[in-house]
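Bench notes, bay 3.
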Amino acid sequence: MGFLRARHDEAPVLGCDPADLAEVEQIVVRSGTSFGKGMRILPPERRYGMYAVYAFCRLVDDVADDEGEPDDKCRRLEDWRARIARLYAGEARDGIDRVLMATIRRFDLRQQDFNDVIDGMEMDARGPVVAPDEATFDLYCDRVASAVGRLSVRVFGDASTHADQVAYHLGRALQITNILRDVAEDARLGRLYLPRELLERFGIMPEPAAVVHAPRLEQVGRILAGRAHDHFRAAGRAMRLCDRTAMRPARVMGATYAAILAAQERQGWGTPEKRVSLSRPRKVLVALRALVA
């Protein structure tokens, strides 16, 4: 933690205590995700604002993924809903609260977007999601991905209606990409996020164990990949109407996930247990191209 304190002592980022900032940053570091590195392109206030948003998402997602009774997990998520309400009322009880509240105030984040994320986590917490209908599938994508996007674009620096459209489409594109490459992993956890109507159209039983080696999973994958591409394109059109500098992180995320989706399409869905990933040099190249585009 020493290196964090030394850096934070240089300026009061978001007006927060360096120890509070370090606590939030450590949640990002412990997650092992590349998210933290990706956010380094942002100036300090926006970077730590995104760390705060990520910390919130990480902590509520951990509640949904924890082993335990659904009722207990839902109670803990309700505690988070009450915690967010306290922040909007001006009450912070710990370091994470204080950085989140500073982020909410600095970037005018909307309480409903936080609640939407919690609602998405509750869908998982109540029991494994298994073959939702199309309306529920879209609602799930909105809550767990596009709602995060609605918080993020404001921290990035654009609170326009066009930025909300970026969040709407890019969130869905990213979530569909994740679902398509995690079919086998989700099935092992008893989950199946593919829409019921699509599975039934191709004669696939809407059950996790039945999907992994279903001969016609390929057709389902291709259709959903097409939807994701449509959302990537719509997000790109909306980005061109937004503040260009503010959209830099969104362009990088979009380009990275579009490359993952393309790799999944090349591999196909015949061996879903083989999870697609990008090499580090490939990720760097994709990011650089997105930044200069």
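Next record in the batch:
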Amino acid sequence: MSLSQRHLDILEMAKQSGFLSTEELSKTFKVTAQTIRRDINELCDKGLLRRYHGGAGLASSVENVDYPTRQVLNHEAKIRIAHMVAEYIPDNASLFINIGTTTEEVAKALRGHRKLRIITNNLNVAASLCDNEDFEVIVAGGVVRRDRGVIGESTIDFVRQFKVDYGIIGISGVDGDGTLLDFDYREVRVAQAIIENARQVILVTDHTKFSCNPMVRLGHISEIDVLFTDRQPPESIMAELHKAKVELHVSDPVEEESDD
């Protein structure tokens, strides 16, 4: 469920103008209205756009895509990102891993490591790693969401008891000015505690997050040390990465079929 270049361009246009008409998009991309309607339907099905009469606009900034959809959305890209992170993380390391479908793939990719100590507020991550007798998996307490993420004041207090080598966090959106964004302010506060208590902060995100604009501010991309993604970010975000001297790792692209 990765996105074509035209889909990415449509999302970027929607981000700039808010609403796009089918006719306007058809002329811009020199394809039929039927092709554009198919594009819009696919993007809406993925929760990235919302249908309106005569076109589409940005999806909600206050409500995330449901968890089962997020699990399969760009799944192959998340696996590639996870493998890069697993190569980067050494054995005998301590790490935080927070809520997110990409961080869950990272956890799976780390199962072959030795002597890791993992603190997580993600029950899916804990379930992936706890069978390895060589690992110590520590789960933060708090309120459990339907996606098995753990949040709340007690979660934040628990995270603050540790200082680890690596903090691995996911995100729901990265704005053009480098602002890191998410949907749940309670989840954001846990992620902020992770950033404050990790010697090196690793952000893992697929390219769709560069076109998503949730309303809750987590921080700025300058607060992370390394970004792992599957496609080069837009120019505005690249400029922020360069300014903050953030290390960037982009996975090898996968050849996609044309949807014209």
